[in-house]
Amino acid sequence: MWFSWWVLSFVYYGITYVLPLVLAKLEEEKAENKEEHTPTLSYREIFISLAAELPSYVFAYTVIENKNFGRKQSLVYSYGLAAVSCICAHIFRHQGFMWAVFFSKFFANCAFEFIYPFTSEIYPTNCRAS
Predict the structure, then answer these.
(1) Contact status, residue 45 vs residue 30, Cβ threshold 8 Å
(2) Counting C-beta atoms within 10 Å of the first and last residue's C-beta, which end of the chain has fewer, N or C?
């Protein structure tokens, strides 16, 4: 379980903190290729990636309370979909990059919402502080 927490933290905070650097690099590549250069583009894209968090809370709440998914299966799906989204962000560096980052943050944030109760439920009831 500690490895899951480490990987999830690494991916989520990696996306959050490295995204402005990646966007600056993509802006430089666009400028070198003589494409249109808009300096406010990175701010808009950062806002789009941050906007992924609010719907992820609503989605995580509805999925975790669904009897068909549960906590463990929801966590596995969110890890898998976050991984697929990160791979798509790497493949589609220009077209569709921000959508891939949006869904990467969306599913990583969902995984955070799923892993908190799942971690506490691993321990027997008499060991929990409730």
Answers:
(1) no
(2) C
